[in-house]
Design a protein that fits this description.
By secondary structure, this protein is an alpha+beta fold. Helix content is 18%, strand content 39%. It has a five-stranded antiparallel β-sheet, with helices on one face.
């Protein structure tokens, strides 16, 4: 594998779809998912995560570019450097309480801008065959 393909990925059901950045590191579809998720330990705030995952798990996978194998940690650092939205909860006017809302897409929009600005990813791969 000359370079590692970086994907924008989506998964989930219903109104709350989840987005992230996935870099495929293995020929079998193995790789690393980088995203933000709500954390009970952080009082419902969104926190950055990176973990091993398989490309086949995602409902949508759009190839966005290619990085060198030595740049995986650089990509992770770029993603980690984008602050997540403050909380995954928003007030509801009916109850006065809070209800879960999906805000990972806000982080996802900002993280792709940071990735492109960093210059570590080569080209945009729209239409790249998997």
């Amino acid at each position: 594998m000359a370079g590692l393909t970086v994907y924008e990925v989506r998964f989930g059901v219903g109104n709350c779809l989840h987005y992230g950045v996935f870099v495929q590191t293995g020929n079998d579809g193995a790789g690393m998912l980088m995203d933000v998720r709500g954390s009970v330990n952080a009082g419902g705030k969104l926190v950055f995560n990176s973990r091993s995952e398989m490309l086949a798990r995602f409902d949508m996978k759009t190839p966005m570019g290619v990085i060198g194998a030595y740049q995986v940690h650089m990509l992770e650092n770029v993603c980690r450097g984008v602050d997540p939205p403050d909380t995954q909860y928003g007030s509801t006017s009916l109850s006065g309480g809070s209800s879960p809302i999906c805000r990972c897409s806000e982080w996802n929009d900002r993280v792709w801008g940071a990735i492109y600005s960093s210059g570590i990813m080569k080209g945009q791969c729209f239409g790249l065959e998997e």
